[in-house]
UniProtKB/TrEMBL annotation:
Keywords: Signal. InterPro entries: TPR-like_helical_dom_sf (IPR011990). Residues 1-32 form the signal peptide. This is Tetratricopeptide repeat protein.
Length: 563
């Protein structure tokens, strides 16, 4: 038997707002969780926001569940799983505890895909939840949605699972449109099911944001309403929306790594590098307090995620020394959690460091599929980033034969990515392949083909969503088009390309520098001074002395643009 907590809502219809308000502060689950169940340094003493889901379990299980639910909304999956397990331990008949465990086994919006073991475990937990489910329509709806995702665990089609989950969450939302937990999970599922085209992704972001904005107004401390609204705004044209929510989100959970990091997605889109750096510095430190793995044996991959955003922010301020220092921190970490996020960042960061600095020799020397312990056959887009960097480094160093080798491999990786059902990732690989083909054509003395390939890459890149795992393209295609047009002595066209790049990715160091040089070469001194001055204003800590000295000369009317 299991005890049913007295409920303020009927078992067969939508609930009102008279639900439990769980303020997740220190001590809220002290009676429910054994200290041995928490890893040292976890955020049990820090606030996480307020969730509202009264379940049919005993009081101790409810307290543990509340914590797990808040952590789930913060995408803090390892600790959320512990909390849901504590709920089941406190009340073995707690159906929603099993639901929670299942929900931590897939990661909407992240590049990680559940492996066979996770699918089997998720299905077992969903079945247990179904077997224990009380006569509560809302709880049964949540459980049915999780079961929809994990059904047929032997079939690995991730996107079919996401579509089933999205449909089930939509059905639940139709029944309970005013319930904050139902609404936020529906909005998350709607975002997660976004197709790999910019227009449809934007439409989904708009509709999800409308739901989340309404929920945030009614429940201003709810972590899911804040968090998923930031995700909804992480698309071109929405980055300035609800900026007060973005700035409030990290304060809602001041020691949660993902809550500290997530606002920096918006700051990256706005080119606010000081906030990107400060937010991810705090997120990286907090991530080290949140071990991953079934025994806490890994450094959570959120550390790597924060480090890449830190590296990116420092590079855009021209501070290559600080960027390299952060990259070295990641390389020195033992036992980084294996998986798609770690693979992405371990591949992307060295590529960024070489390419942003124009160090073509270093780019050409990058080692693909490193470290070897990762299953790189599952991580085709990260490998493609390294192959692109190697190929671009070779092409810019006039080693066309090696560039062609990497271009061939990019084609294979694009095909493999598409065969895995990852059309968005495949489109990003195709952007890299087009760009590399353009640089190979440039090295081969075919400037018309070179321009056409880079223009095609730029158009495709602008038409597809940016996955949340990355702060931005490895190198923006419009920026590369500007670089190529400058090499081809077309500075006015190059200026247009650079300024288009800046409209998509504001305050990038190399786009500002390229725009300034192109404007100077085109005779537009006012534009040149404007871009040089902007570069200087954002690069007070910069270490690229030659470029910064060039900018200083031009802002006082001296010197020429250099190359």
């Amino acid at each position: 038997m299991y005890s049913v907590r007295p409920s303020s809502h009927p078992a067969t219809g939508p609930i009102g707002r008279g639900v439990l308000l769980a303020a997740l502060l220190f001590g809220s689950m002290a009676a429910a969780q054994d200290p041995a169940d928490s890893h040292p340094g976890s955020e049990s003493a820090a606030p996480l926001g307020e969730v509202e889901l009264e379940i049919s379990c005993n009081a101790a299980a409810q307290a543990a569940f509340d914590r797990g639910l808040a952590l789930l909304h913060h995408m803090t999956y390892p600790q959320a799983r512990e909390a849901f397990a504590a709920a089941v331990a406190a009340d073995p008949a707690c159906a929603m505890g099993h639901w929670g465990i299942a929900m931590t086994l897939f990661t909407p919006l992240w590049p990680t895909r559940p492996d066979a073991a996770a699918l089997q475990q998720g299905w077992r937990e969903a079945q247990r939840a179904h077997a224990l489910a009380p006569d509560d329509v809302r709880e049964r709806g949540f459980i049915a949605a999780a079961a929809a995702f994990f059904r047929d665990p032997d079939h690995p089609d991730y996107w079919a699972r996401v579509r089933r989950w999205e449909a089930a969450q939509a059905d639940l939302y139709d029944a309970f449109p005013d319930d904050v937990e139902v609404a936020t999970f529906h909005a998350l599922a709607h975002l997660a099911g976004a197709p790999p085209t910019g227009d449809e992704a934007r439409q989904r972001a708009d509709s999800a944001a409308a739901i989340l904005t309404a929920m945030h107004r009614a429940h201003p401390a709810h972590p899911g309403a804040m968090h998923y609204l930031v995700h909804a705004n992480d698309v071109p044209g929405r980055e300035g929306q609800s900026i007060e929510v973005t700035r409030r989100y990290d304060a809602a959970a001041p020691r949660n790594p993902h809550a500290l990091h997530m606002p920096t997605h918006i700051y990256t889109r706005l080119g606010d590098w000081d906030r990107v750096i400060s937010g991810n510095r705090r997120a990286a430190e907090a991530a080290l307090e949140h071990p991953a793995g079934d025994r806490g044996q890994y450094v959570w991959d959120e550390f790597a995620h924060a480090i890449e955003y830190l590296v990116y922010g420092h590079l855009q301020q021209g501070d290559d020394v600080a960027a390299a220092r952060e990259a070295a921190r990641l390389q020195a970490v033992p036992n980084l959690e294996p998986g798609a996020k770690s693979a992405f960042h371990l591949a992307s960061i060295p590529a960024r460091l070489a390419l942003e600095r124009g160090d073509w020799a270093a780019a050409a020397a990058l080692e693909p599929r490193h470290p070897a312990a990762l299953d790189w056959d599952r991580h085709t887009w990260p490998e493609a980033i390294v192959r692109f960097a190697r190929g671009l480094g070779a092409a810019r160093s006039d080693n066309v034969s090696e560039a062609r080798v990497q271009a061939t491999r990019l084609g294979e990786l694009e095909a493999a990515t598409r065969a895995n059902g990852e059309d968005l990732f495949a489109s990003h690989v195709h952007v890299l392949a087009l760009a590399l083909d353009g640089w190979i054509a440039q090295a081969d003395g075919d400037p018309a083909t070179a321009r056409a390939r880079l223009a095609e890459a730029a158009a495709l890149e602008a038409s597809i969503p940016k996955p949340p795992v990355t702060p931005g393209p490895t190198l923006p295609a419009h920026e590369m088009l500007g670089d190529m047009l400058r090499l081809q002595q077309s500075p006015a066209d190059a200026l247009v390309a650079y300024e288009h790049a800046l409209s998509l990715y504001p305050n990038r160091f190399n786009s500002m520098l390229g725009a300034a040089r192109a404007a100077d070469a085109a005779g537009d001194q006012a534009a040149a001074r404007r871009h040089y001055a902007r570069l200087l204003s954002l690069s007070a800590q910069g270490t690229r002395q030659s470029a910064l000295a060039e900018a200083r000369r031009h802002t006082v009317g001296e010197g020429d643009g250099g190359d």
